[in-house]
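Page 42, continued from yesterday. The earlier attempt failed because a stray header line got pasted into the input along with the sequence. Redoing it now with the clean sequence only.
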Amino acid sequence: MLQIDYKSGISICDQIINGFINLISLSVLKTDDAMPSVRALASKLTVNPNTIQKAYAILEERGVIYTVKGKGSFVADAENTRKTLINTEKDNLKTVILSAYQKGVSREDINNIINEIYKEGGDLN
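This time it went through. C-alpha coordinates are written below.
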Protein backbone atom coordinates (compact mmCIF):
# COMPACT_ATOMS: atom_id res chain seq x y z
CA MET A 1 0.00 0.00 0.00
CA LEU A 2 2.05 2.99 1.21
CA GLN A 3 5.80 3.07 1.63
CA ILE A 4 7.77 5.76 3.38
CA ASP A 5 11.23 6.78 2.21
CA TYR A 6 12.92 8.07 5.35
CA LYS A 7 15.89 9.34 3.32
CA SER A 8 13.70 11.39 1.00
CA GLY A 9 13.71 15.15 1.21
CA ILE A 10 9.90 14.97 1.27
CA SER A 11 8.28 15.06 4.71
CA ILE A 12 6.63 11.88 5.95
CA CYS A 13 3.29 13.68 6.15
CA ASP A 14 3.54 14.78 2.51
CA GLN A 15 4.57 11.26 1.45
CA ILE A 16 1.44 9.89 3.12
CA ILE A 17 -0.77 12.53 1.49
CA ASN A 18 0.76 11.95 -1.96
CA GLY A 19 0.60 8.20 -1.49
CA PHE A 20 -3.13 8.20 -0.80
CA ILE A 21 -3.82 10.61 -3.66
CA ASN A 22 -1.91 8.29 -5.98
CA LEU A 23 -3.78 5.20 -4.70
CA ILE A 24 -7.07 6.98 -5.34
CA SER A 25 -6.04 8.23 -8.79
CA LEU A 26 -5.00 4.68 -9.74
CA SER A 27 -8.39 3.38 -8.52
CA VAL A 28 -6.79 1.21 -5.85
CA LEU A 29 -9.00 3.13 -3.42
CA LYS A 30 -12.47 4.05 -4.61
CA THR A 31 -15.23 6.38 -3.46
CA ASP A 32 -16.48 5.46 0.04
CA ASP A 33 -13.69 2.93 0.68
CA ALA A 34 -12.58 2.96 4.32
CA MET A 35 -9.18 4.46 5.07
CA PRO A 36 -6.91 2.59 7.48
CA SER A 37 -7.31 3.71 11.08
CA VAL A 38 -4.76 6.22 12.32
CA ARG A 39 -3.35 3.73 14.84
CA ALA A 40 -3.15 0.84 12.38
CA LEU A 41 -1.43 2.92 9.71
CA ALA A 42 0.96 4.51 12.21
CA SER A 43 1.91 1.05 13.44
CA LYS A 44 2.34 -0.36 9.94
CA LEU A 45 4.47 2.56 8.74
CA THR A 46 6.23 2.97 12.12
CA VAL A 47 5.47 6.67 12.27
CA ASN A 48 3.95 8.83 14.97
CA PRO A 49 0.12 8.69 14.97
CA ASN A 50 0.09 12.50 15.07
CA THR A 51 1.74 12.50 11.63
CA ILE A 52 -1.02 10.25 10.26
CA GLN A 53 -3.67 12.42 11.91
CA LYS A 54 -2.14 15.54 10.34
CA ALA A 55 -2.06 13.89 6.89
CA TYR A 56 -5.70 12.82 7.25
CA ALA A 57 -6.68 16.33 8.33
CA ILE A 58 -5.00 17.79 5.22
CA LEU A 59 -6.62 15.17 2.97
CA GLU A 60 -10.00 16.01 4.50
CA GLU A 61 -9.38 19.75 4.09
CA ARG A 62 -8.65 19.12 0.40
CA GLY A 63 -11.84 17.09 0.00
CA VAL A 64 -10.01 13.84 -0.71
CA ILE A 65 -11.44 12.03 2.33
CA TYR A 66 -14.26 12.55 4.80
CA THR A 67 -14.73 11.43 8.39
CA VAL A 68 -17.77 9.87 10.01
CA LYS A 69 -17.68 10.17 13.80
CA GLY A 70 -17.25 6.80 15.40
CA LYS A 71 -16.80 5.06 12.03
CA GLY A 72 -13.53 6.39 10.62
CA SER A 73 -12.33 8.09 7.47
CA PHE A 74 -13.43 7.26 3.95
CA VAL A 75 -12.46 8.17 0.39
CA ALA A 76 -14.55 11.09 -0.85
CA ASP A 77 -15.17 11.54 -4.56
CA ALA A 78 -12.40 9.46 -6.13
CA GLU A 79 -13.13 10.76 -9.64
CA ASN A 80 -12.84 14.35 -8.43
CA THR A 81 -9.51 13.49 -6.74
CA ARG A 82 -8.28 11.95 -9.98
CA LYS A 83 -9.31 15.04 -11.98
CA THR A 84 -7.59 17.31 -9.45
CA LEU A 85 -4.41 15.26 -9.69
CA ILE A 86 -4.49 15.39 -13.49
CA ASN A 87 -4.96 19.16 -13.45
CA THR A 88 -2.10 19.57 -10.98
CA GLU A 89 0.21 17.43 -13.09
CA LYS A 90 -0.90 19.29 -16.22
CA ASP A 91 0.11 22.57 -14.57
CA ASN A 92 3.46 21.06 -13.52
CA LEU A 93 4.12 19.79 -17.03
CA LYS A 94 3.12 23.11 -18.55
CA THR A 95 5.67 24.90 -16.38
CA VAL A 96 8.45 22.49 -17.37
CA ILE A 97 7.53 22.48 -21.06
CA LEU A 98 7.33 26.29 -21.23
CA SER A 99 10.71 26.54 -19.52
CA ALA A 100 12.22 24.09 -22.02
CA TYR A 101 10.60 25.95 -24.94
CA GLN A 102 12.01 29.27 -23.72
CA LYS A 103 15.45 27.65 -23.66
CA GLY A 104 15.13 26.56 -27.28
CA VAL A 105 14.06 22.94 -26.85
CA SER A 106 11.92 21.98 -29.85
CA ARG A 107 8.51 20.33 -29.72
CA GLU A 108 10.05 17.27 -31.37
CA ASP A 109 12.72 17.05 -28.66
CA ILE A 110 10.07 17.42 -25.95
CA ASN A 111 7.99 14.65 -27.55
CA ASN A 112 11.10 12.45 -27.75
CA ILE A 113 11.82 13.09 -24.07
CA ILE A 114 8.24 12.18 -23.13
CA ASN A 115 8.41 8.99 -25.21
CA GLU A 116 11.73 8.08 -23.62
CA ILE A 117 10.33 8.59 -20.12
CA TYR A 118 7.35 6.36 -20.92
CA LYS A 119 9.66 3.67 -22.32
CA GLU A 120 11.78 3.75 -19.15
CA GLY A 121 8.65 3.44 -17.02
CA GLY A 122 7.21 0.60 -19.06
CA ASP A 123 3.62 0.70 -20.19
CA LEU A 124 2.17 3.31 -17.85
CA ASN A 125 -1.41 2.77 -18.99
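Notes: Strands lie at 65-68, 72-75.
Reminder to self: strip header lines before submitting.
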